[in-house]
Amino acid sequence: MRTAGSETTLGGRAAGGTAASRDRRPESAAASEYAVSEYAVSEYAVLEYAVLEYAVLEYAVLEQYAICEHAGFDEFRHELNALYYPARVEPLGPAGAGVGLLRGVRTEHLTVGVMRFGQPTLVDPGRTGAGYHVNVTLAGRIAATTDDEETISAAGEATVFAPHRTHRLTHCAEGAAQLGIRIDRRLVDAELEALLGRPVQAPVEFALEFDLSSPAGRAWRASLDLLLAELDNPDGLIGRAAVRSYHERLLATGLLFAQRHSYTEALRAGGAPATPRSVRRVVDVLQSEPQEPYTVGDLARVAGVSARRLQEAFREHLGTTPMGYLRSVRLDRVHEELQAGAGGVTEIAYRWGFAHLGRFARAYRDRFGELPSETARTEAGDR
């Protein structure tokens, strides 16, 4: 990266592109070590960075959310504005023969889309007002500005735009493609307040360039890739409101951990220490409802302290992190139900909050010395 000076709504109404298009559907250095480790232990978040590089290959992502696959410029402009927000979208030069591609979906607090520009294009939304925006370039080169900063991103690089700043994509090359993720401003602010353990007054000022090769950047991209995989999986859990909410909050929390911003130092400082009573409140919640899709911010809210101080207190009193403790409780519940023959492995794992079965099986074997399928077979043989 070089620096110089209509969609489907999950959980709501559905809307497609035009009839014609539907018929054609064939770390930043400032991130703390704490933030990387605590964010990354989520049962949903940690994937190897390269696992879902499919996003670059023929843009095989969000295929069931196609809006326009072979669009002329006017149709592409109309649908892009309908998916995100009104923007000035203009060709840079005479109209060419290239065609645009747009797929996208909305959840309650996210808009996620993949787009390919059929010809050199300017996109100027100005101030977007209600949402933070992350663009991940998949192919080609895209030049962008925000207020007095500008950058050029290539495949695998990302940029972050704040709603109170003007921003433009000044030159999207012909054939360039990107993932565009809009995160509701209220969600980002709420997650930041939960992580800090106090209200925030000023808006978050993110750095423009987002390093996806850092440990926290890779974790954030992994959580995005997992969301994309869930959206593309007809048998996935994304249809459940609680799971959608978890993915939304995970992206917002991960962005606050992974990308430099005006509250990074406050996150690292942590605020007032957590008391044993704060730890007990969190333990009680995790013991009573371990199946719920908690984020670090959720548990900090329960404790009434910052996420950093909560992690420190858990390490001091319990020798683990809040999310590590949650994982242990979930594994114990699964083990108990497998021994009782209360269902199949997949059913029980999902019931107790494990969404990634391969990672669940490894964690189960590490804890109990055998795979969950072996526990199930043993207990079935004893009955």
TrEMBL record:
Does the keyword field hold Lipoprotein? no
Q: Name one GO molecular function term.
A: sequence-specific DNA binding
Q: This protein's superkingdom?
A: Bacteria
Assigned keywords, A-Z: DNA-binding, Transcription, Transcription regulation
Q: Residue limits of the HTH araC/xylS-type domain?
A: 280-378
The name this protein carries in UniProt is AraC-like DNA-binding protein
- Asked whether the keyword Ligase is assigned, the reply is no
Q: Which PANTHER family match?
A: HTH-TYPE DNA-BINDING TRANSCRIPTIONAL ACTIVATOR EUTR, HTH-TYPE TRANSCRIPTIONAL ACTIVATOR RHAS-RELATED
The UniProt entry, under SUPFAM superfamilies, shows: Homeodomain-like
Q: Which Pfam families match?
A: AraC_binding_2, HTH_18
Q: Which organism is it from?
A: Pseudonocardia hierapolitana
Show the segment(s) annotated as Disordered.
Answer: 1-27
